[in-house]
Structures are given as structure tokens and as C-alpha cells.
Amino acid sequence: MDLCFLPAHELGRLLREKKVSAVELAGAVYSRIDAVESRVKAYLLTLKEEALNQARAVDAALASGEELLPLAGIPLAVKDNICLRGVETTCASKILKGFIPPYDATVIERLKEQRVVFTGKTNMDEFAMGSSTENSGFYPTANPWDLERVPGGSSGGSAAAVAAGEAVLALGSDTGGSIRQPASFCGVVGLKPTYGLVSRYGLVAFASSLDQIGPITRDVRDCALLLNAIAGHDPRDSTSAPQEVPDYTEFLVPDVRGFRIGIPREYVGEGIAPEVRAVLNRVVELLEGMGAEVEETSLPHVRYSLPAYYLIAPAEASSNLARYDGVRYGLRVPAEDVVTMYKRTRSQGFGAEVKRRIMLGTYALSAGYYDAYYLKALKVRTLIRRDFDEAFKRFDLILSPTAPTPAFKIGEKVADPLAMYLSDIFTLAVNLAGVPAISVPGGFAGHLPVGVQFIGPPFAEGQLFRAAYALEQEAGLAAKRPAL
Ligand code: GLN
Predict the structure, then answer these.
(1) Chain segment 291-303, per-residue pLDDT in tens
(2) Could you tell me which of 236, 204, 234, 208 has the C-alpha nearest to residue 101?
(3) Of all atoms in ligand 1, which is nearest to the CA of residue 428?
(4) Residue 433 pLDDT > 80, yes or no?
(5) pTM, entire model
(6) How far apart are CA 431 and CA 444, in angstroms?
(7) Catalytic: which of 131, 178, 400, 423?
(8) How far apart are the two ends of the chain, measured CA to CA in Å?
(9) Helix ranges restricted to H, 366-460
(10) Angle at which helices 376-394 and 305-320 pack, to 10 degrees?
(11) Strands 437-445 and 75-79
């Protein structure tokens, strides 16, 4: 039995039936890490000893007859912008080298209550700025389906770890597509929850009005189980919604009869690779075959998502990243006076993309330009949100490709930031509108997986799970895995 490729819900059953132990499971995952990590490089740091201790505690609890929570003993990888107490957290930035958070993020606290086994911290684009994990301040991660290609980003390490069998579950964060696009490139499931559904306490901020933590998993049921564990109100995050959270597994019925699904014509026009279009067409056929009604619709303002996002996100980032000054966190490059120390620390600590964003954001917020850029972008954001409100009066869900292409080659887009930014063209609007979206495998382009994205109204994660689950059952792709 290949333990490290089974989904968490099956592993949970095997644990409870005492057919495997948590220590065996953790051992299987670390053997897999030993076998493939030198090629994939999904992790910045692994936690083998701690993980085995956690696994032993789960086995002891089970032996003493304790009732285990659904994710007990399941190996889970954590994106390196989420604080795990006592474990170095760098956001893949040299400027945070040596920063050890003295507290747990709320999502981590909740997963500790579940007795999840934390495998390690995963690689990412520095401060989550990027779409390929090539902006990591340390090294790029490879796509397990094709080692010459990127895993997507910025949660590339988390998606690659799940796809390669180096973790069963993972946490990512999504500001403009960073969970969904890597999920699409790596053939796994990724959910960006409604803004406010999952606490951001302990997530290192990139663009606070857009950031959300979410699950990256092997199948849709695992995604629902992980969301069950991390969702819900948190008084420590003032943007957290005081919302009752349902049991998302109750939505996992393979039935989309009567579902009205809209495909925005803005998302199937130019710029989408023919093989991605072919996957989308096939998905539409499958959904219609199951009784859903699929129709073309329009989101007239989503074509302004990219410019609006690249003003709002850098503006927030320029303010959030001001705290890395060499005094309070991580790296300090000493100098004779404090201003020179700030300058040297920031020049050496931040990578090129992060500097570009800080400059863009500072410019957009500066006196005289604020109205022309930042304020205007906020108005466009409102128009985009209204487009979704309108669409959801007629449709239960919106369907689109997750990304315009399958995984691209390492190095292919590094010299052209705009080409890189375009990789999120279908995911950005979702964050601007604050609505939830899931990427689920839809098919293959040759040897490369291609995901599709379902977008729903605020707090309609259940509906997303239902459609994604139905598609997963019908498309039968969940069992596919990379050869590596
Ligand atoms: N790729 C987008 C960016 O570079 C989105 C990143 C993200 O979602 N964190 O900003």
C-alpha cells in the first residue's frame, strides 16, 4: 500500500481501524521525502523529529481509546508565511532569515487541536509575490509532473509537496491566485475561501484586503475536511466573519442537476492556450451530461482586474513590508548609523520582485498620485464586485479555466514580469471581489495537469464543493499521480 498517495479521509479510516499507525504513516511520508525532495525541493525546512513525536502522541491517544478528530495523525505541510511557534518562518525571504515566531497562527492552533502532524515549511515566492515559486529567495521548486517546469506560485511548494506524495495535505495562501494556480499546475485541489472565512491571524501579511489561507489537497473530500478544521470566527482577526460554519462534507454529493453555471465570455477569449480550452470544453460536456445548465455570461469589468490588482496589492504590500527594517525581525546588516542599517538590510534582504512591488505601491500611494491610481483602483474593485453580484443573481456558480496555460518552463517568464502577472488573469478578480473559488483537476494537456475554477457567491463554499466533487467523480482524475 502506497500510504503517502492516499487521501486524508482514507488514511483517517485506516488509522481508526488500526490498520496503520500514525508513526508508520509519518515514516512513509519521510521516506518519500528522502526519495524525491532533492529533485522537487518543495520544502524550505522539514520537521521529521517533531513529526514523529506528534505521530507517537496520536498512536498513544488511539491506544488509550481516545476519540480522534478527523485529521488526527495526517501529515500536513505549511506554507512558510504561516507562523508555527518555535519554527523558523521566512516567507522565502532572506530578510526574515532567523525569524522564529513565538506564537501559532490561528489555523495552526486549530490543526494542533486536531492532532495533525506537521511535516515542514514549504517553499514559495518571496512574501507570496509571484506565480512560479522562482521568486523564492532561496531556490525554485520543480513541478512533480515535469521537473523542468514550475509548480506555479506562490504556494508552489505546498502544491508540489501534495502532488509528489511528500505531504498528504497542505496549507497555502491566496492573494491573487496563489492557491488555485499552483493547484492547477500540479494536478491537485486548491480552495481560496471567502474573504473572512479563515482567520489571517499569524499569516504574514502581503496585501491584507486580499489574503486568505486555504487548503491544498489530493481530492475534494480532503479539501472539505481541511476547511472544516480551519474555518470559523476568530476575534484576533478583525476581518474575520462572525459566521456559523457548516460541515462542508455534507455537500459532497455527486449531483449538479439543475445547477446554473455561467461561463464569462471575458474568460474564454484570446490568450487562452488551445489545450486549456479543450479541457474546459470537456468539463462543460461532463457537467451538462450530469444535468447542469451551462450558459455564457459576462463580467464586463474583469478585464480591469490586472491593473487594479497591481495597484491595490503593491500599495498594501508597501505598507505591510515597512516593518522589515533590521530592528525587529530576522536579518540585520550592521552599519555606523541607523538609516544606513535600514538601507543595507532592505537592499540585501529583499529580492528584485519584492523591491519592484514596494516601489509600485509607494508610487501609487504618494501625494498627487493617490487619486489617479490607488483610489481609482478601489473604484474599479467595486465595479468588479458588482459584476459578480449581478452574475450570481442568475447563476449558482461561475466556471472558468484556473490559468491560461498548463505549467510553463522554469526560466520561461522570469525576464518578463507582465507575462508572469498574466498567469493569474482568471484568478485575480476573485480576490478583488472577496468571493470563494476552487481549482479542481479538469483534464490533461499531454503529460501536464490542467485545472478548472468554480467561483461562487460569498460563503457558498458548500456549493463549490458539490460541483467540484461531482466533476471529480465524473472525470475520474483524482487517482492520477506523477511518475517522478
Ligand atoms: N501571482 C500574484 C502576485 O504575484 C498572486 C500572488 C498570490 O496570490 N499571493 O501577486
Answers:
(1) 999 999 999 999 9
(2) 204
(3) 5
(4) yes
(5) 0.98
(6) 26
(7) 178
(8) 18
(9) 376-394, 417-421, 428-433
(10) 120
(11) unpaired
Ligand 1 shell residues, CB under 6 Å: 128-131, 154, 174-178, 206, 313, 424
Q: How many CA atoms lie within 13 A of 360 on its CB side?
A: 19
The 75-79 sheet, strands edge to edge? 43-46, 117-122, 75-79, 169-174, 212-217, 189-192, 437-445, 448-455, 397-401, 260-264, 293-297
475: Cα within 13 Å, side-chain hemisphere:
32
48 catalytically annotated: no
Arithmetic mean of pLDDT, 134-138: 98
- Domains in the chain (CATH in brackets) are 1-237+246-484 (3.90.1300.10)
Q: Determine the atom of ligand 1 nearest the C-alpha atom of 178.
A: 8
Q: Which residue has the cell 500536513?
A: 76
Distance in Å, CA 131 to ligand 1 centroid:
6
Amino acid at 8: A
Whether 79 is catalytic is: yes
Identify the pLDDT of residue 251.
98
Mean pLDDT across the chain = 96
Torsion of CA 410, 412, 414, 416, to 10 degrees: -160
